[in-house]
């Protein structure tokens, strides 16, 4: 079983912000794998919205923590413990301020590099050995990082965001089917 977690913030006012790209990607992945019949349920015991799927290669849980970004580790840890999912079978999709808009990177392990959602997951799991799919959000007009991540994309960035999400969805599919090395070379 694999757990794919999209990071974001649960309130509607955050829906189209840079910080919610993880939520957007797991929504797209769910639709791609399940079609329009994808069903999200709020699971209070996990503090997350989850969706259970079966693919030809594995059983999947897609999750959107409802704990807000900085406490994402609480939900990830609850789900992982309940389903007995090892850290190396967890894929976390998140926005990345260190990458320019449109860039995608996949890696296993490493520090949170200032991303409070990732730092929370590392603390809650007690390890950094999970896979991250990092989606670049940076532009040349970066001002205060805390404000920047909570802003919506500019109109001239939206086509690049759509393209990045399309490619990132395929990257996650390659990751599930063929492993991390193939997904890294796919980008």
What report would you give on this structure?
The protein is α/β, with parallel strands linked by helices and 187 residues long. It has one domain: Rossmann fold. Helix content is 36%, strand content 25%. The protein contains 6 helices and 7 strands. It has a 7-stranded mixed beta sheet, with helices on both faces. Strand 2 and strand 3 form a beta hairpin. Helix 1 crosses helix 5, helix 2 runs parallel beside helix 3 and helix 5 runs antiparallel to helix 6.
List keywords for this structure.
187 residues; 7 strands; Rossmann fold; globular; alpha/beta
What is this entry, summarized?
The protein has 187 residues and is an alpha/beta fold. It has helices spanning 21-34, 72-83, 116-125, 145-148, 158-178, 180-186, and strands spanning 2-6, 41-43, 48-54, 59-65, 90-100, 104-108, 131-138.
What topology does this entry show?
Elements: E1 2-6, H1 21-34, E2 41-43, E3 48-54, E4 59-65, H2 72-83, E5 90-100, E6 104-108, H3 116-125, E7 131-138, H4 145-148, H5 158-178, H6 180-186
Poorly predicted runs are none
Structural class: alpha/beta
- Quaternary status: single chain
Distance between the termini: 25 Å
Q: Look up the CATH topology.
A: Rossmann fold
CATH class: Alpha Beta
CATH superfamily: Peptidyl-tRNA hydrolase
Q: How many domains, in number, for the residues?
A: 1
Order of helices and strands: EHEEEHEEHEHHH
β content, as a range?
A: 15-25%
Largest sheet: 7 strands, mixed
Q: State mean pLDDT (0 to 100 scale).
A: 94
Task: State the helical fraction.
Answer: 25-40%
Treating each run of at least 4 consecutive H or I residues as one helix, how many helices?
Answer: 6
């Amino acid at each position: 079983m694999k757990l794919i977690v999209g990071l974001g913030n649960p309130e509607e006012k955050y829906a189209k912000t840079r910080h919610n790209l993880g939520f957007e990607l797991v929504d797209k992945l769910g639709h791609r794998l399940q079609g329009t019949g994808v069903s999200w349920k709020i699971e209070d015991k996990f503090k997350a919205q989850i969706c259970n799927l079966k693919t030809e290669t594995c059983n999947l849980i897609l999750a959107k923590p409802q704990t807000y970004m900085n406490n994402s580790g609480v939900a990830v840890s609850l789900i992982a413990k309940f389903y007995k999912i090892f850290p190396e079978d967890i894929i976390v999709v998140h926005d990345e301020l260190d990458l320019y808009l449109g860039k995608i990177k996949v890696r296993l392990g490493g520090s949170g590099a200032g991303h409070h959602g990732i730092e929370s997951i590392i603390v809650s799991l007690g390890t950094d050995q999970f896979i991250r799919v990092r989606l670049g959000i940076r532009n040349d007009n970066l001002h205060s990082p805390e404000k920047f991540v909570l802003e919506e994309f500019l109109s001239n960035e939206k086509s690049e965001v759509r393209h990045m999400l399309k490619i990132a969805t395929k990257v996650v599919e390659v990751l599930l089917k063929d492993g991390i090395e193939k997904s890294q070379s796919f980008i």
